[in-house]
Amino acid sequence: MDVDAGHGAALGGALPTQPGELPLTRRLRSLLAWPGAETDPVSHLVRTHRGIHSGADPAVLRRAYTIAETMHRGQFRKSGEPYITHPLAVAQICADLGMDTTTLVAALLHDTVEDTRYTLQALADDFGPEVAHLVDGVTKFDKAFYGKAAEAETIRKMIIAAGKDVRVLIIKLADRLHNMRTLGVRSAASRERIARKTEEVLIPLCDRLGIQTLKRELDDVVLLHLHPEEHARIARHVHDRPGWDAYLAEVVAQARVALRRNRVDAAVSPRPRHLYSIWKDTVAGGHSAPYDLPRIAVVVDGPATDCYAALGAIHGLWRPVPGRFKDYIASPKNNLYRSLHTSVCGPKNRTVEVLIRTEEMHRSAEYGIAANYRFPRAGGDAAARAEQLAWLHRVLGWEQDAADPAQFLQSLRSDLAEAQIQVFADGRQVVLPAGATPVDLAYELGTERGDHCLAARINGRLAPLSSELEDGDVVEIFTENDADNGFEAEAAPRGPRKEWLRFVKSPHAQMQINRWFAEHTEPGISISDKVRLGRATIGLALRQHNRGLASDLPLLRLAEELGYPDLETLLVAVFDRVIAPDEVVRQLIDLVDHRQ
Ligand code: MN
């Protein structure tokens, strides 16, 4: 990277609002710089931000805007608007979400390093390492160098950066939301491609972070681009539902009376579904007309136990529809969503859906991980926060084991796509992909447990290691190392079985089993295995430098430079330790960083 620290720092000095200025001077300066509040491009952003964080300092936002605007000047979006409208809109989405000043600054600058001559170093000098880390996390890999694999590398890099600071993902989601909103000007093919990618990776990521306010918008905009006529049909339906509002008002009024009579303090309001959710239920149920039940939310002003009191009041008023009650308070969803769900036979015999939750549950249902920033004093406890990011750390766990970014991306996709189950083991809840087996569980409990698992007891009964676990199962794992496991232990620990690969479900377990075989099959190893393992060794060593290789190009060049006849020979040499992997990696990084 070329270091250009002087440039940005110099610009920073020329910005408005300097300390020690007289109020009048400042006012005159601001009048000169921003001819009026209405035309000041940052004022809406500042107002939103200070509406949620009253103590926030607007000066740094203006400084970030000025740099971004200067850097992007002369660049235009496909719509013809000046480029700066995009980072400003992304920052606005983050502000509406209630994110902190640092996130907003990074959002304003998020494309500068990728698309302008502003460098990461200048950014770090001007705004500090935190902002630099966030911007770097959303900066794409160079397509010219990484080619087709750039996308996988970019996602891998973003996830690693998010492991250190989850705000990276929030900026990326806001970035994608604004790009999706403004896709209209692109060709049909590129709209579909971008919408599909959003649906495949970013929406599930958003869902895992629990940020429903963003997810609803992303869902609807994906529907718009993938199925425009369906989007129009559902929108029309929502727009003209005769008597719908009056009916909901009646439901809300009756519910309020019943709650008051039962001495439950609660706010009741209609809870409309978003278009995508109506469409999904319509398709899933095979309905010809849009399928959309009236829905209300009851937000109790008290502890979680009040939710059950509210449930009693609602079920006392209207008969519950059998089989529709779900207690996500006792068993939260994998993104920590908590609420009671029920359907009742409401006025005029129409089915009504009811969501019941506390204030705190409501906040985290809407904002998920972003609630920690929006309500910093609400005392969201550290344990819940850590739990919310547990899956992210699990994903980062396989990152260590994935042979290359493409495999990592594939694992990430399948993890995000799959339904999940929760089982109980070692006295705690463990989240696994649907269809997981005791072997998946054992690896989730620890590599040692996985490598040496021998048998499992599911709900008190012995079961084969290949059994499919079900939601709510209580599982015990026995290993060769359990002193008193009651099983015939063989003399020597034997490790995983090859056939496990046929039934394990989680990418983590797959990778761990492959790793074990890679480590334990050295004698009589074939050349093709040596090539594969040599490559994996380089991959691992690169990863220790937080780098990755998505194409063979740099390796090919290095092989040539080192005088090897071909790439395979170099990889075998690495495997046989003829050349140290660290040495290869040092030279590779040199080669990549000085490619001009
Ligand atoms: Mn962008």
TrEMBL record:
<comment type="pathway">
    <text>Purine metabolism.</text>
</comment>
<comment type="function">
    <text>In eubacteria ppGpp (guanosine 3'-diphosphate 5'-diphosphate) is a mediator of the stringent response that coordinates a variety of cellular activities in response to changes in nutritional abundance.</text>
</comment>
<feature type="domain" description="TGS">
    <location>
        <begin position="417"/>
        <end position="479"/>
    </location>
</feature>
<dbReference type="InterPro" id="IPR012676">
    <property type="entry name" value="TGS-like"/>
</dbReference>
<dbReference type="InterPro" id="IPR003607">
    <property type="entry name" value="HD/PDEase_dom"/>
</dbReference>
<dbReference type="Pfam" id="PF13328">
    <property type="entry name" value="HD_4"/>
</dbReference>
<comment type="similarity">
    <text>Belongs to the relA/spoT family.</text>
</comment>
<dbReference type="InterPro" id="IPR043519">
    <property type="entry name" value="NT_sf"/>
</dbReference>
<dbReference type="InterPro" id="IPR012675">
    <property type="entry name" value="Beta-grasp_dom_sf"/>
</dbReference>
<dbReference type="InterPro" id="IPR006674">
    <property type="entry name" value="HD_domain"/>
</dbReference>
<protein>
    <submittedName>
        <fullName>RelA/SpoT family protein</fullName>
    </submittedName>
</protein>
<dbReference type="InterPro" id="IPR007685">
    <property type="entry name" value="RelA_SpoT"/>
</dbReference>
<dbReference type="GO" id="GO:0015969">
    <property type="term" value="P:guanosine tetraphosphate metabolic process"/>
</dbReference>
<dbReference type="Pfam" id="PF04607">
    <property type="entry name" value="RelA_SpoT"/>
</dbReference>
<dbReference type="Pfam" id="PF02824">
    <property type="entry name" value="TGS"/>
</dbReference>
<feature type="domain" description="HD">
    <location>
        <begin position="83"/>
        <end position="180"/>
    </location>
</feature>
<dbReference type="GO" id="GO:0005886">
    <property type="term" value="C:plasma membrane"/>
</dbReference>
<dbReference type="InterPro" id="IPR004095">
    <property type="entry name" value="TGS"/>
</dbReference>
<dbReference type="InterPro" id="IPR004811">
    <property type="entry name" value="RelA/Spo_fam"/>
</dbReference>
